[in-house]
Write a structure and sequence with these properties.
This protein has 315 residues and is α/β, with parallel strands linked by helices. It has one domain: Rossmann fold, CATH 3.40.50. It is 42% helix and 18% strand. It is built from 11 helices and 12 strands. A 7-stranded parallel β-sheet has the order 3-2-1-4-5-6-10, with helices on both faces. α6 packs across α10. The radius of gyration is 19 Å and the shape is globular.
């Protein structure tokens, strides 16, 4: 089997490629990445070269995507601009990567009749005061980032309905784990705490997210690929709803650092208070559940960041 992974130098994409090599070594992987803001070549520095090749390119290049998708059995679209703060200051790059890029992939999928797994996010549902969003919940994005991901979902749905393409959408909650960019909350806390520097926390630190260890997410995505029904969507949750204060304090406790490092700063514009997904569908229909407890995942994540300082620095 040949698969195409887009954005494979990014956080989740690189972990997915490593997951495939460790669990499905006979699958041939092509990784296309444009080496943009979220990419880090060091993420796959130790990748096994057998059954793997890297292509430097942009998913908005129709001719290139036609060539790569024609030679693949399935596409896993991890490529995305994903940092909310940057989407507020520079929305255009998010529109290009997340909407135009998805459109380009869809055109190739339609032309060559391949399977697409579109990786989305819980942020498309917006902030929820109570309850958890099921797959059919109304899309209500708040930021340019989440709006671009919701737009991509609508494009995928329209191609399923209009052209009958074989596509599935997955939505996950907040990922954490090795190889995540240090602008994100958990790696930022780890790297700053390691240097005994102040840790900025937005607002009161009471914003709530559900956290999933990246290895669990990768396993869920492949389960959807193997057993999921085309045209459907599947929510992937970690069952770890915690506010930012709790996450930061857990990390500091594991690292043996004082709480006095926490520094509350002005909140960002449009900061959603709470995201939450109901993942009953994937649990019951595809027999998937997350394996990592939050403490276990944080310990492995902290260990990786402290042991790979040189790897993290390489771009």
């Amino acid at each position: 089997m040949n698969i195409l992974v887009t954005g494979g130098l990014g956080f989740i994409g690189s972990n997915f490629i490593i997951y495939i090599q460790e669990n499905h070594p006979n699958i041939k992987i092509t990784n296309i990445d444009a080496k943009l803001e979220g990419s880090n070549q060091a993420n796959l520095r130790h990748i096994k070269k057998e059954n793997y090749r890297f292509v430097y390119g942009n998913i908005m290049n129709q001719k290139l995507m036609d060539k790569l998708i024609a030679g693949s059995d399935a596409v896993f679209n991890f490529a995305a601009e994903s940092h909310v703060d940057r989407s507020i200051t520079n929305p255009k790059s998010f529109i290009n990567s997340n909407i135009i890029g998805t459109y380009t992939i869809l055109e190739s999928i339609r032309r060559f009749k391949k399977r697409l797994i579109q990786i989305s996010t819980d942020e498309v549902f917006g902030s929820l005061k109570t309850g958890s969003a099921i797959e059919e919940h109304i899309l209500n994005p708040s930021s340019p980032y989440s709006s671009s991901k919701a737009s991509a979902e609508l494009l995928v749905r329209s191609y399923v309905t209009t052209y009958g393409i074989d596509a599935i959408i997955t939505r996950c909650t907040n990922n954490y784990g090795p190889r995540q960019a240090e602008e994100k909350l958990i790696p930022k806390v780890i790297t700053l705490a390691d240097k005994n520097k102040e840790i900025p926390v937005y607002g009161t630190g009471k914003n709530i997210r559900d956290w999933i260890f990246v290895k669990d997410h990768c396993d869920a995505v492949f389960r959807v690929f193997e057993k999921g029904k085309w045209g459907e969507s599947y929510n992937i949750a970690g069952n770890n709803e915690l506010d930012n204060n709790t996450i930061v304090k857990k990390i500091l406790k594991i690292m043996g650092k004082p709480l006095s490092l926490i520094n509350y700063v002005k909140d960002r514009p449009g900061h959603d208070f709470r995201y939450s997904l109901d993942s009953t569908k994937i649990q019951k229909r595809l027999s998937w559940r997350p394996e990592y407890r939050i403490e276990e995942g944080l310990e492995e994540t902290i260990s990786w960041y402290l042991g790979n300082k040189f790897l993290r620095a390489k771009k």
